[in-house]
Structure formats: structure tokens, C-alpha cells
């Protein structure tokens, strides 16, 4: 067919695009598992929540707190929504009663939370299940070329609470008593319970990592990625879970996950998080200093000799230490922020590459760096007869 024939066909050829195998494969997968992206609230199948309280604990019934008239209609609307979705059921009496805390969301709506820290949490037997270590999660993503991020919708509320435990989750409002049938936010054991459930659901799936309601899927190539993604969506569908499609991202060259930017080369610091730390003003007391050090230590693996650098600041945290922000503290504070601006990348572990361990210690610091030894350039004849290496992996 010649070009002259193309002019006869009523199509806007400038807007015709070639669909890649990746795009068509992803589209087919999302269509096959459309139920996972439903608007209804998911209900986790086969896994329920049982809460246990310490022996001898007495029920605690508190009065309803006053709700400002300005937000009462929104609070009542959210109560109706939760009842309609099967999250709450109205009850007439209960030995337990937890007051609510209405939280105003960015879109102007209200989210109702129970203030369980004053009732159930102090007597609750805490679940002993660990959250994943960030280092372990990133190690499990090694070899990934592109990444798909899946966000569960109203994660905790997708878990059903066993009937004998629901009494503990009674909330008291200006409209009366309501009892949670689903796992609410604010319960001490909620993160452990949910993480254990998700580990059970996603167990055995390659290229999949999960931290609470955030799931990351990858693969060594396009075909593996598609297989891993479909297996993940299939597993979520089997367990009756729902995902927010507007918060998902598929086959991205890089994604932000747990405060890091992750891509095929490794881990990078999140620019927005770095900006917040760098723009932080000097602390005025111990509490503010602890907050700053906590933020900085989250990226501590990117900063060489951090303990030595922060020595003047750590000295302010000593017992019976009088707060005095000295010039040395100011220098350490600013140097630490400057060090955070480096372009260090933590590469994914590759068992095929050689490792190098470097250790160091001083009277007030000890540290170690585990690195991959990787060539960064090939030298031409006439240049120094040696190899250039760069160290990426820090731990």
C-alpha cells in the first residue's frame, strides 16, 4: 500500500502509536484481574484477627467526646459510610467504650479513628511479629530492571475481626455505640497482624516485596516481571483484597519506596526527604536534636564516618548534660547536612561480583563498609597501567 492510499484512509496517523509487548501484556493482565481494582472494600479470606488482653484486665468505658458542630455532619456521614461498608455495626451496650478522634483529611472529608491508647492498647497482648528490615526488602529486589508498585486500599479495614474480639473495639460517639468488625487503625498490634497476613498471602512469590500495604514487584526481564505481577494480582484476588489503581504504578524505571528511590542501579536518597533534612533549622533542645538525628540516621548508610561527624551532637544527649549549642555543634550539624547531598548510590547485591570489606575505628566511633568492586572505565594505552574502581555497596 503506497503513501497515496494512506491519505484516503480517515485516520490521524500522527496519533497512531506502536504498542509494545510490555504494554499489551500489562493491559491483558490488568483486565484479567479487574476485580482486584474494584471500588468496594476488600475482605481478606481465610485470615482473621483475634485480640487477646492481659489476664485480670478490667473493661474500660469512657464517655463520648464533644464533636464540634462544624464537623458533626461529616462525622455522621463517615459513620454511615462505615456501617454501610460493614466496618461498623451499631450496638446498644458494651463494657468497653473508646472515644473517637475525627481526623480532617486533605480533601476536606473526615476519617474516624478510635483513641485506643486510652482503653484497649495498655492491656492488649502485643503481637510479636517483626516488620521487614528495609535492607532485606531491598536485597530481595536485586536484579530488577523495572518496578511495579501496588497500594492496598484501606489496608487494615480489609481484615475481619473475630466476633469474640469485636467487643474490645467498641467506640462511643455522640450518635451512640458502634463496634468494629474490621481491624481499625490505632490498635497497637495492627501493623504486626497485617504484616503477618501479607507475608502469608504473598509467600513464595518471586520478585515481590511487601511492607504493610505497599507491595513492590520486579523481575530480571520483561517476561519475568509480567509473570511476577500476574502472580501477585492473582494471589490478592484469591484472598479477596482490593487495590487502589490510582495509587499504583506499573513497569516504572524507578519508584519511590520507603523513603528511597529505587532503580536498576540501586538505591538513591529521596530528594524530597533530603530537602526536608537539609532545610531543618538548628535544634533548640534535646527533643528536636533527637528528631533531627533520627531523620539523618535513616540515610546514615549513605554517609561515610557518620558517627565521627556527629560526635559533638551525640555528646549533647548524655545524661545530666546541660544543653549548650556550641560552635563545634554548629559545624557538625552543617557538615552532616552537606554530607547528605553526596551522590552515593547503594547498589543491589550481586553474588557474581567480588566483595571488599573495609573496617575502621576511633576512640568514639566504629564502622565498616561492604562494597562491590566494580570497574568504572577502561584505560587507554599510555594511561597508568591500573584499574579504576568505585565502591557502591555500603552496609
From TrEMBL:
Pfam families: RT_RNaseH_2, RVT_1
Sample GO molecular function, one term: RNA-DNA hybrid ribonuclease activity
Enzyme nomenclature, EC number: 3.1.26.4
Domain Reverse transcriptase: 84-262
InterPro entries per UniProt: DNA/RNA_pol_sf, Retrovirus_Pol_polyprotein, Rev_trsase/Diguanyl_cyclase, RT_dom, RT_RNaseH_2
Family: Belongs to the beta type-B retroviral polymerase family. HERV class-II K(HML-2) pol subfamily.
Protein name (database record): ribonuclease H
Organism: Pelodiscus sinensis (Chinese softshell turtle)
Amino acid at each position: 500500500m503506497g503513501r497515496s492510499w494512506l491519505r484516503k484512509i480517515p485516520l490521524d496517523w500522527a496519533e497512531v502509536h506502536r504498542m509494545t509487548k510490555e504494554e499489551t501484556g500489562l493491559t491483558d493482565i490488568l483486565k484479567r484481574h479487574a476485580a482486584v481494582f474494584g471500588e468496594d472494600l476488600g475482605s481478606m479470606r481465610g485470615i482473621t484477627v483475634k485480640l487477646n488482653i492481659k489476664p485480670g484486665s478490667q473493661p474500660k468505658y469512657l464517655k463520648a467526646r464533644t464533636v464540634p458542630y462544624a464537623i458533626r455532619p461529616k462525622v455522621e456521614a463517615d459513620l454511615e459510610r462505615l456501617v454501610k461498608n460493614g466496618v461498623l455495626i451499631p450496638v446498644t451496650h458494651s463494657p468497653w467504650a473508646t472515644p473517637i478522634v475525627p481526623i480532617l483529611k486533605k480533601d476536606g472529608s473526615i476519617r474516624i479513628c478510635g483513641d485506643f491508647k486510652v482503653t484497649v492498647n495498655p492491656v492488649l497482648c502485643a503481637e510479636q511479629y517483626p516488620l521487614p528490615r528495609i535492607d532485606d526488602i531491598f536485597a530481595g529486589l536485586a536484579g530488577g530492571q523495572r518496578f511495579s508498585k501496588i497500594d492496598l486500599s484501606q489496608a487494615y479495614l480489609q481484615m475481619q475481626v473475630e466476633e469474640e474480639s469485636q467487643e474490645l473495639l467498641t467506640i462511643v460517639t455522640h450518635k451512640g455505640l458502634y463496634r468494629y468488625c474490621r481491624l481499625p487503625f490505632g490498635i497497637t498490634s495492627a501493623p504486626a497482624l497485617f504484616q503477618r497476613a501479607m507475608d502469608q498471602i504473598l509467600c513464595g512469590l518471586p520478585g515481590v516485596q511487601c511492607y504493610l500495604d505497599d507491595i513492590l514487584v520486579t523481575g530480571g526481564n520483561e517476561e519475568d516481571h509480567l509473570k511476577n505481577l500476574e502472580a501477585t494480582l492473582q494471589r490478592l484476588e484469591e484472598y479477596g483484597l482490593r487495590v487502589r489503581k490510582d495509587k499504583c504504578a506499573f513497569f516504572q524505571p524507578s519508584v519511590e519506596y520507603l523513603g528511597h528511590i529505587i532503580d536498576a542501579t540501586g538505591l538513591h536518597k529521596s530528594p524530597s526527604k533530603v530537602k526536608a533534612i537539609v532545610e531543618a533549622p538548628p535544634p533548640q533542645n534535646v527533643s528536636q536534636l533527637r528528631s533531627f538525628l533520627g531523620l539523618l540516621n535513616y540515610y546514615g548508610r549513605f554517609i561515610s564516618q557518620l558517627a565521627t561527624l556527629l560526635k559533638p551532637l551525640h555528646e549533647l544527649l548524655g545524661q545530666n548534660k546541660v544543653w549548650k549549642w556550641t560552635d563545634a555543634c554548629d559545624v557538625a550539624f552543617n557538615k552532616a547536612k552537606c554530607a547528605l547531598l553526596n551522590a552515593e548510590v547503594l547498589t543491589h547485591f550481586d553474588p557474581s561480583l567480588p566483595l571488599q570489606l573495609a573496617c575502621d575505628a576511633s576512640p568514639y566511633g566504629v564502622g565498616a563498609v561492604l562494597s562491590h568492586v566494580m570497574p568504572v572505565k577502561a584505560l587507554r594505552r599510555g594511561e597508568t597501567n591500573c584499574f579504576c574502581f568505585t565502591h557502591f555497596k555500603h552496609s
